[in-house]
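Researcher: Structure for this, please.
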Amino acid sequence: MATIKGYNGSLRDTSGNLIGELTSFTLNITQNTENHNSFNDEWVDTTATTKTWSVDGSGMYAPDDTYQNALVDEVISGDSTYSIEVRAEGNTTGDENFTGSITLGEVSIDASSDGVIGFSFSGQGSGALTKGTVT
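Model: Predicted structure, token format:
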């Protein structure tokens, strides 16, 4: 079984531009289900229904990073829509990626006197998430 090194991952816009200085992300994909059964049947059946997905990213704040600023600007402008690409495997042609549009829920710039200034964001998928490969 192959092991993927975490530092190979990245978050980008769907034009392939790297969102700079991020150190972690989480892609959540949820399949909702509905349980059902009928009279005289003691066993419950489960049916897959709708799907949702979300992305969270965090790292160090880089005020001169164009693509971090794009996330901040989207929330400030009120649009809050961002096209994102998640690359968990790496950046080589043929590596797996996930793309879609998110509605940003939160962008945070966090500071403490004993560390570097942090940056994080979270967004809910708006529409389908597509699994493909890096081109």
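Researcher: Any notable elements?
Model: Residues 36 and 45 are 5 Å apart (CA to CA). The two ends are 24 Å apart (CA to CA).
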